[in-house]
Write a structure and sequence with these properties.
By secondary structure, this protein is an alpha/beta fold. 39% of the residues lie in helices and 13% in strands.
């Protein structure tokens, strides 16, 4: 193994070259070098080769354990059997709980399917950023990454949340507008497919998160004004088992991006977000679509 440098990167031999492990970046898809990778690549390769990781390496990776966008796309794999794929598609993800890596892969593919016009009005945050923000060791970094998203220039910001092994969706609406505006009032939506999980228990962390975002961006609004931003929890369709929550969040995102009003007004709430918003069949069809998008990439 190479030496640990002050930059937070490590190097190790790799087929005559050197692999640079960037432990401090929030992702690895935009790295310029073909030999540069992130901690998830290294873990995957070491596992495949049954290579033992030293205690020091494990501690370094754990301390910077950040989510990377769909690292599976960069690992070569053999061509999948079309026959086997067709047989397994209907059950592969519909009956499994989505982890953060799988969720981010599907989210990336879903985002690419939206038109450029739609994407101009939206931004989305990584699915682990909210959880990481609540940890003292990574909160400042998360706020720095959010700055790069320019969320105050967007009408809507999608914030997938995974807490206590459960997925929900937070949406910031019109955060760039004046909080005292009478025409367009900034607000937040919290969509949860498991109402019995008491989604409002997230409110204290959400409000602290929002205040720190405003403060880190140097916004003029004071803490009292920000604390008055409404947090709305519409009655949305509920999941049928204990593992569908991730699929529901992806479907919430898909439908909201398609149908979100040009301007979100409190008078129109809850708009289309009702308990009959979509059917179980609609969700299943959507999941099959996600599977087909993944197969096109693999």
């Amino acid at each position: 193994m190479g030496r640990t440098r002050r930059t937070g990167r490590k190097t190790r031999p790799h087929g005559g070259g050197v692999v640079t492990i960037d432990l401090e970046s929030e992702g690895c898809t935009d790295q310029p070098s073909k030999h540069r990778t992130c901690w998830k690549h290294i873990q995957a390769r070491m596992h495949a080769r049954r290579t033992r990781m030293t205690k020091k390496q494990a501690e370094e990776i754990e301390s910077f354990k950040l989510t990377s966008p769909c690292f599976l796309q960069t690992i070569p794999c053999r061509e999948r059997s079309k026959k086997r794929f067709k047989r397994n598609t209907a059950v592969s993800k519909l009956k499994k709980e989505l982890d953060s890596v799988s969720f981010n892969c599907y989210m990336e593919n879903l985002w690419k399917s939206f038109s450029e016009d739609k994407k101009m009005s939206f931004a989305y945050l990584d699915s682990l950023w909210f959880t990481m923000y609540t940890e003292a060791s990574s909160g400042v970094k998360v706020l720095e990454w959010i700055k790069r998203k320019h969320i105050f220039s967007k009408k809507y910001v999608l914030v997938p949340i995974v807490r206590w092994c459960h997925w929900s969706l937070l949406i910031f609406c019109h955060f760039g507008e004046n909080l005292l505006s009478e025409n367009i009032t900034p607000c937040m939506l919290l969509l949860d497919s498991l109402e019995m999980a008491s989604p409002k228990r997230l409110e204290p962390d959400i409000r602290k998160f929002v205040w720190d975002i405003y403060e880190s961006e140097g916004r003029p609004e004071n803490k009292h004004m920000i604390s008055q931003i409404p947090l709305l929890v519409p009655k949305v369709p509920q999941q049928r088992n204990g593992v569908e929550c991730g699929n529901y969040v992806l479907y919430f995102i898909n439908l909201f991006v398609q149908d979100a009003p040009e301007s979100f007004h409190m008078e129109g709430y809850p708009y289309f977000m009702k308990d009959n918003w979509f059917s179980p069949e609609g969700l299943e069809h959507f999941c099959e679509k996600l599977e087909s998008l993944e197969s096109d990439i693999l």
